[in-house]
Specification:
heterotrimer, A alpha/beta (327), B mainly alpha (305), C alpha/beta (349), A: eight-stranded mixed beta sheet, four-stranded antiparallel beta sheet, 12 helices, 24% strand, B: 305 residues, 11 helices
């Protein structure tokens, strides 16, 4: 079955005063219908840019240099703004890591959801408002008919995020892009939001791309995982396979760090040093990689299979997977 | 197949990257902004003329030849002569000396006083006691100064103490203090909320120490960006004062007084004696304003990275 | 051996109220009492609105407490005058949450790290420089960093600089305000290791404020959990993880998502939102969200009860629930509501 979304070799850069800065350097991934993919990377890896590129939300000085984003068989990057507007909010929806910034502070919450409903469907206002209240119930907000009349500043961060989720799900989109949905939320609230999203996405049978810095979130709420480093996907696998045996040194480092940060025992972390660079030749991770060899600096590895349904961008991926290196 | 940990190449004595990095990025910044470059050129020209204008002038700017009055532009007198026969070109390029001196000195005084008062009124604004009282007093004083129509105020000040360069400088300095005060105060409000200020308290600083060692240097940005347009505005004000005769004494070349002298002649058709100083004034102020805008944009951290 | 004299810090009934923007009071801290011994690391854990950050700042007098006593090194600092307080500053330092913003961007690293000892001790300039280099080495940087500026370092390194500055005056207490929350996961473990090593090596006490219960695990000996301005449970780190007795503690632990899909997610999740500190519920603050709530919970706020030695809990039903679990455990029943923590092996450290 053809994938619902296929991102091929995306290259995006940012035009700063000193010259263009590469942010996405050949990112590729694919997602099937009803699948959930976790995109993991640290700050600056390009994950938010990836999500915004998919929706065509980039403006100059950002520019897409190369690549395609095939959704439902069509390349979104080649579409005009008019056509994209029909897709946004209806076929593809997005949530934000800063819910307060992406909600209109001047409109009541119910009105905003009703606006989203009316943007893509010809319904009378009254019906749109009723459906809005229904959505507020679905996202677990108490007293939804009263809640609809609230302004965003009267809600907590977690509640704003629920409202954004309600807006995202208003048209039962085929794809939801959840960009760090629990950033800045308290842990007990975050847990509620994640459970909620998981159930709702399943009910509507959407596909989900969940962008996060937290490997724990991806472990429990996604079926597949893609790791981004320096604007490229360096590993892509099923969650079960990834967490028992990752095939890229950077992934192993992230997993160790995540475990170490939660663990009682000390000394489990690997200190990387240096910073992220975009070298002209060779693997982008080589300058920080504890097991890098001379060929790593000459030849940039491609994203290749290392096991069934498991890709990695590393010359030594087979050894890393089998646990034969120090990692 | 052993690997070695990669050496940390940053464990070396620090290269002087700080200054070079900023200058380099300034060059890159300017390259893409023609308006800013234009402003820089204007500023450079005015500074040059302020230093050397009177020297490179073809004629003595204060030498009057009544018989040669109101001659149109010609190869001898590039921009013509005014009503008493002084060469307009020489006067136009000599004027920056006095204009710029007045503008720079008054702006500098206003900057220093305004920033100081801005830091005090901003940092000690909240809370109880002397700090609060002092801050409120400063702000009300600024309100009063700003409530006066600028021109009337300058005129009154100068007429009260007589027209002279020093009085013009004092009047302008006094009038400009509130602007520097307010922008600095605004910056101080933001800076004092930042964690490093709390850290300074933990380190054992007195509040005064924090205000001037930590907060002030980080709150100078808007005030510095305000210098350039202030200079332009000061030149304009000087010209205005001279226009009504309350500024620089008559024979001294100054754009405003030149316009004042030449204005009546425009109606009789001798357009050159007022137009050229007017153009010079306008272009100069534009240049300084553009530079001010550019500096403000350059220092804006959201523009970078 | 007077037990009280071993206490470095003794906080009693600390209350802090802020005026709310539209009138009323934000009751940030509602009567908090705890103590820290010399050389001990205590964690203060809670979510937003718990008041943990406010407690930290009150102790250092960066915020003025409303009422309560704070006894540090035998002196009551809660109302001490600022000039007398300044003498104590070298002994009580703070590490901030924001690695970059807690450093003055216009000053060199040398200046930044030197400041507390320049102001707080009588060391000569030469001796100060030695000390700065010494602490930079201790945090894993070196003399090469002296003449550089904060923006030239990564977030992890900036935080190390902050640590160097905090330990330079040889403090007895360091308040750590969410020191790793702003850092990427890959850097967190390093910094936590560093903090733990330093604490052992230098013998200072920590007050580690965090919203992440697992972050404190490798650094702290004891944990106090806060909810809406009150401490709901205190105990040793091991016990809190293995046997959390308060329902809020259990919920916190079960919200942790370990990076291992095989670990089952606990179903002990609290319903609803955190109430506003302006409008606190009557009785126990958790009752609106707590699966164990009964009528008694509405009537009064539970007093802390010492259920196990050194383990205090403020919940009417904690003892009852625990006894129920002990009985079930003996009978061989697996308990769905037990915490996610595993038996911790005390390894070689």
């Amino acid at each position: 079955m053809a994938p619902l979304l296929e991102v091929k070799d995306l290259r995006v850069s940012f035009l700063a005063d000193a010259g263009p800065v590469r942010v996405l350097n050949g990112t590729s991934l694919s997602l099937g219908s009803g699948e959930s993919l976790g995109v993991v990377g640290e700050s600056g890896s390009g994950k938010t840019v990836l999500v915004r590129t998919i929706l065509g939300l980039l403006q100059p000085p950002w520019q897409v240099l190369e690549g395609s984003v095939i959704f439902n068989g069509e390349d979104l990057l080649k579409k005009r703004e008019e056509e994209l507007r029909h897709i946004r909010g209806k076929e593809i929806a997005i949530t934000s890591p800063e819910p307060r910034k992406h909600i209109n502070p001047l409109l009541r919450v119910g009105d905003q959801i009703a606006n989203v409903l009316q943007a893509h469907r010809d319904v009378p206002r009254k019906e749109a408002m009723e459906r809005a209240v229904g959505l507020l119930t679905a996202v677990g907000l108490p007293a939804p008919d009263q809640m609809a009349r609230f302004y965003p500043h009267e809600l907590s961060g977690g509640m704003c995020q629920r409202v954004i989720i309600a807006m995202a799900l208003a048209h039962s989109p085929k794809l939801i892009l959840a960009d760090e949905p629990t950033a800045g939320l308290d842990v007990t609230i975050a847990r509620q939001i994640l459970d909620l999203m998981y159930d709702l996405v399943r009910d509507v049978n959407s596909s989900l791309i969940l962008v996060s810095r937290d490997l724990g979130v991806v472990a429990h709420y996604c079926q597949r995982v893609a790791v981004i480093y320096a604007g490229q996907v360096v590993e892509s696998a099923r969650v079960a396979d990834f967490y028992t045996g990752a095939a890229h040194p950077y992934s192993r480092h992230l997993l160790r760090a995540a475990a170490a940060a939660r663990d009682e025992r000390r000394g489990a972390a690997i200190r990387l040093g240096q910073r992220v660079v975009f070298p002209d030749r060779g693997c982008a991770f080589a300058s920080r990689c504890p097991i890098a060899l001379p060929p790593c600096k000459e030849e940039a590895p491609a994203l290749e299979p290392v096991a069934e349904d498991h890709l990695a961008r590393c010359l030594r991926r087979a050894e890393v997977l089998r646990g034969e290196t120090q990692l | 197949m052993t690997t070695q940990p990669l050496p940390d190449t940053r464990k070396q004595p620090a290269a002087p990257t700080q200054g070079r990095g900023q200058f380099g990025s300034f060059i890159a910044f300017s390259r893409g902004r023609p308006g800013f470059l234009f402003g820089l050129v204007i500023v450079a020209i005015t500074i040059f003329l302020a230093c050397f204008g009177a020297i490179v002038a073809p004629c003595d700017p204060e030498h009057a030849i009544p018989e040669a009055g109101l001659l149109p532009p010609s190869p001898v007198h590039l921009l013509g002569t005014d009503v008493v026969g002084m060469d307009i070109f020489s006067r136009v390029i000599s004027a920056p000396r006095i204009d710029l001196t007045i503008a720079l000195v008054s702006t500098l005084i206003a900057f220093v006083c305004g920033v100081f008062l801005g830091v005090i009124s901003g940092y000690f604004a909240s809370g109880r006691g002397i700090g609060r009282v002092g801050s409120e007093t400063i702000m009300r004083g600024a309100d009063i100064v700003q409530a006066f129509p600028i021109f009337i105020f300058a005129l009154a000040l100068v007429c009260f103490r007589g027209p002279s360069t020093a009085n013009v400088i004092s009047a302008l300095a006094f009038l400009n203090i509130p602007y520097f005060l307010r922008v600095t105060r605004g910056a101080v409000f933001q800076v004092r909320e930042r964690p490093f200020v709390e850290a300074a308290r933990c380190a054992g600083n007195t509040e005064r120490g924090i205000a001037f060692t930590h907060v002030m240097p980080n709150a100078l940005g808007p005030a510095l960006a305000n210098i350039s347009p202030s200079i332009g505005f000061a030149i304009l004000l000087t010209a205005g004062l001279s226009f009504v005769g309350a500024g620089v004494p008559k024979p001294t070349p100054e754009w405003g007084s030149m316009i004042s002298i030449g204005a009546p002649n425009m109606m009789t058709g001798q357009w050159w004696s007022a137009l050229f100083p007017g153009l010079a004034l306008g272009v100069t102020i534009l240049g300084y304003a553009l530079v001010g805008d550019g500096i403000l944009e350059f220092m804006d951290p959201t523009r970078r990275r | 051996m007077n037990g009280a004299r071993m206490r470095l810090l003794d906080v009693s009934d600390l209350i802090k109220n802020f005026p709310a923007p539209r009138g009323g009071l934000v009751k940030a801290v509602n009567g908090v009492s705890f103590h820290i011994e010399k050389g001990e690391a205590l964690a203060l854990v809670g979510e937003s609105g718990s008041g943990k950050t406010t407690v930290g700042r009150c102790i250092l007098r960066l915020i003025e407490p409303t009422t309560g006593t704070i006894v540090f090194r035998g002196q009551d600092v809660s109302t001490m005058r600022q000039d007398r307080l300044r003498v104590l500053r070298p002994y009580m330092q703070m590490l901030f949450q924001e690695p970059y913003d807690s450093l003055n961007p216009r000053k060199s690293i040398r200046w930044i790290v030197e400041e507390p000892i320049r102001l707080g001790t009588k060391m000569s300039s030469g001796r100060r420089l030695e000390r700065v280099v010494e602490v930079l080495d201790m945090v894993g940087l070196g003399s090469w960093a002296l003449d550089r500026y904060p923006h030239q370092f990564s977030a992890g390194e900036q935080q190390r600089i902050g640590i160097a500055r905090a330990i330079a005056p040889e403090p007895e207490l360091v308040v750590l305000d969410e020191p790793t929350s702003a850092l990427d996961v890959s850097v967190r473990a390093e910094i936590l290791d560093l903090l733990a090593d330093l604490q052992e090596h230098l013998g200072c006490s920590y007050l580690f404020i965090s919203h992440d219960l697992t972050a404190v695990r490798r650094v702290c000996h004891r944990v106090a959990i806060m909810y809406l301005g009150k401490i709901v449970e205190t105990g040793s780190t091991a016990e809190i993880f293995e046997q959390p007795l308060h329902p809020y503690s259990r919920a916190l632990l079960s919200s942790v998502l370990y990076a291992d899909p095989r670990k089952e997610l606990s179903r002990f999740v609290l319903a609803g939102e955190i109430p506003s500190p302006i409008d606190l519920p009557s009785g126990c603050f958790l009752r609106g969200r707590c699966p164990w709530a009964v009528d008694a919970c509405r009537a009064a706020y539970p007093d802390p009860e010492e259920i196990l030695p050194g383990h205090r809990v403020a919940c009417f039903r904690a003892r009852e629930k625990r006894e129920l679990e002990l009985v079930r455990h003996e009978k061989g029943d697996s308990d769905v509501t037990s915490a996610v923590g595993q038996v911790v092996e005390r390894g070689d450290e």
